[in-house]
Amino acid sequence: MFNEVYKKVVFGTEQWNALKITESPQYNWNADSTYIKKPPFFDAIKKNTKTFSPINDARCLLMLGDSITTDHISPAGNISKVSVAARYLKEHGVEQKDFNQYGTRRGNYEVMARGTFANVRIVNKLVTEVGPKTLHVPSNKVLDIYDAVEIYKKENTPLIVLAGKEYGSGSSRDWAAKGPMLLGIKTVIAESYERIHRSNLVGMGVLPCEFINGENAEKLGLTGKEKFNIHIPKELTIGQVIDVTSDSGKVFKVKARLDTEPEIEYYRNGGILIYVMKKLML
What we know:
The protein is built from ten helices and nine strands.
């Protein structure tokens, strides 16, 4: 039976061979597909970044507490009919019965970005209700997180996340770092990190920073409604302490959690994907 099956395995099934394909060394992206969509992870490949850039006039997208897990961050489970991802699928002609799960649509970054921080149990201190809502500070409107992100992007506003202890705990998930990057989050400032998630943030070009001297957002009197400036020097070193200022007059220091020389290079290039691609192109 083994020999009978495996002597034909390389020829494929009738259904496989009936698939229509385009002879090309590159994948022919279908713009109408709701399952597979060309991601923007390499859009910045032409940037020849040699120095680090400060993050100016950033807004806080989420102000979180302790033990925020990758389940809170990463898109997972069934796509709720009242979610922003569901709205996107409806707009593209997908019926509710065909929404499926985030895991089956992980090849479509539009769906996954909309599912980032979409956990119904997430507690964002910027709003009173539990769930994937936030405050768009300039307008003082409570919106779905992704809707607020869209407005901030139009305003060219970089975003940050404030968090407590053990940010990113739980099982490691790549979309827990990819999603925040797609939302325009430039840095996370937390009291502490889960080891692998911190590394994954660096890999996606998101700077993980850590409060020092026992400080946190509450002790510093931060409301999350401030504008933040993260003063990143032109030359960062391992574990360097940098200044953060706000338009409210708050000034504090954080540790940039770039823990190795390779991580500094990944961050300098906008993430490990672009770093590796540049190496391959040399």
